[in-house]
Amino acid sequence: MKVAVLDKNGKDTGRKVDLSKDVFGIEPNNHAVYLDVKQFLANQRQGTHKAKERAEIAGSTRKIKKQKGTGTARAGSIKSGVFKGGGRMFGPRPRNYSFKLNKNLKRLARRSALTMKANDNAIVVLEDFTIDTPKTKEFTSVLKSLGLENKKSLFVLGDSNNNVYLSSRNLKGTEVVTNSELSTYKIMNANSLVLFEGSLEEIEQNLSK
C-alpha cells in the first residue's frame, strides 16, 4: 500500500512510501484489539475505592431488641447494613485491576489497529519537521493544513522531539507520542493517525517480528 508523503503545509512532496503488508495489511483480529484496549483501560484504574463494612463501623455492640416476640425480623447489631448509618454490605474494596497479555497478542492487536486505520484511509504520512521554539500557534497551523483541526489526531514521532510535543500539549483532541508510547488504545481512539516519516521504519521493524 503506497501513501503520499506530505509536508507540514499539507502539500504533496512528490514522494511515496510503501506501507508494509505485514503491519498495515493483515486480517484484523477484533478480539485481540478488544483485549489490548481492555488491558490499557484497566491499567489506568487506581483501584483505591473503599467503603466501610459492618466490622469497621463505630457503634454499640449491644443487641438492640429481644430475639423473639417483636413480630419483626431479628436484629443483633445497630451496625448492620440494613440500618441507617450501618456498614455497607458487599462494598468496594481496594484491588488491582491490571492483568497480563503476552507480547505476541499485543503485537497482533497493534497490527490489527493499524490495518483498520489503513483500510479507513485514516493514515497520513508526514515529512519529518521540527519547531524551533514551542509554539501552539505553529502546531495549530499544521493541523489546519492537514485538515485535522477539529478531529481527534495522533501524531507519532520518529525520534523524541520536545518542541513538537510541547507545542501540541495544550490542544484538545491532539496527542503526540513516540514509537515506544504507541498503543492499540491510542490508535483506535484517534480519528486520524499521522505518522512522521522517520517513525515508519521502527514501527514496521517492531511489529513485524
UniProtKB/TrEMBL annotation:
GO cellular component, as recorded: ribonucleoprotein complex; ribosome
Keyword list (alphabetical) reads: Ribonucleoprotein, Ribosomal protein, RNA-binding, rRNA-binding
Reported function: One of the primary rRNA binding proteins, this protein initially binds near the 5'-end of the 23S rRNA. It is important during the early stages of 50S assembly. It makes multiple contacts with different domains of the 23S rRNA in the assembled 50S subunit and ribosome. Forms part of the polypeptide exit tunnel.
Q: Which GO terms describe its molecular function?
A: rRNA binding; structural constituent of ribosome
Q: Which HAMAP family does the UniProt entry name for this protein?
A: Ribosomal_uL4_B (MF_01328_B)
GO annotation, biological process: translation
User: What does the similarity note say?
Assistant: Belongs to the universal ribosomal protein uL4 family.
Which Pfam families did the record assign?
Ribosomal_L4
Q: Describe the subunit structure.
A: Part of the 50S ribosomal subunit.
Annotated segments matching region Disordered: 46-77
The name this protein carries in UniProt is Large ribosomal subunit protein uL4
InterPro entries per record? Ribosomal_uL4 (IPR002136), Ribosomal_uL4-like (IPR013005)
